[in-house]
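User: I'm designing a mutation panel for Reverse transcriptase Ty1/copia-type domain-containing protein and want to avoid disrupting the core. Could you give me a predicted structure to guide residue selection? Please restate the sequence first so the numbering is unambiguous.

Assistant: Good idea. Sequence first, for numbering, then the predicted structure tokens:
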Amino acid sequence: MNNVSNSNNMNNVSNSNNLNLDSVGNLNFDSSNVDISHDNHSDSFDGLFIFPLQSPVELTSDEELVPPSNEMFVRGEGAVTRPQVPVTGTERPVRSTRLKKPVRYEDYDLSDSSMFVHNSEYVEPSTYEEAVSGPNRSEWLSAMQEEYRSLLENNVWQLVDRPNNVNIIKCKWVYKLKTDSVGNLIRYKARLVARGFTQRKGIDYSETFSPVVRHSTMRVLFCIANELDMEIEHVDVTTAFLHGNLEEQIFMEQPVGFETDKDKVCLLNKSIYGLRQSSRIWNCKVNSVLTSNGYLQSQCEPCVYLKKTESD
């Protein structure tokens, strides 16, 4: 076996000591003493295929041979292997489509069923009718009454006569089961949200943008607090969006199950969850409260406010 030829550019390898078979039938190739020559039609040598000792593969006229799995493709100092698959036209072997588990999830054990609420009795209803007709009717009614009282205490709306030729947005109840860290049910939560997708731009809202703090900013603040041995305090504002005052005049239908007069609608005084401008109004409220108390907004991070006192 002195010559091995490549049918594409007719390159020749001439050395009887370069190709040999080991005890298990694998082909070994020593490229250190290879005399390579090519024809005059090729200006450069791009690589060569070394085929093993095996029976030839029969091909049809419209097929070409992809080198076998134990064949070596030599380019410079590297060598890679390629499978032998007869292909038609421009088709090539398809890579495996099997989904692989992301590396970042390898440490997660999702076999513990206590993380989830599997009991069919504890199901989050999607509509008001499902909530009041299910096995946990009393719990969901209590949660809705609590939310409704909170809306009235915050003076979120006032009932007015239904206007003519005005866009009146709808609302719906959203139900959520609150669980602890191990999956135990601790609370039934109901929230009234507006169907903001029925709002009309330029009439019911204008600007909707509000900044969001970056994770990198949070990490920097935690590092500074750790380095300076400072204490970190966390504050959770209950029904935060209800503290912002609306600038636009928005009418909303009364909540399902709490209608007092069919001819009345809610004229919103405060921002409510679901409105397109709710997050912006809340951000403006926070900004006004903090700046009025002597805090300065960072120019590079709009969600960070600084205040320096004499004792600092």
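For picking mutation sites, this is relevant: The longest strand covers residues 185-194. The chain is about 15% helix and 20% strand.
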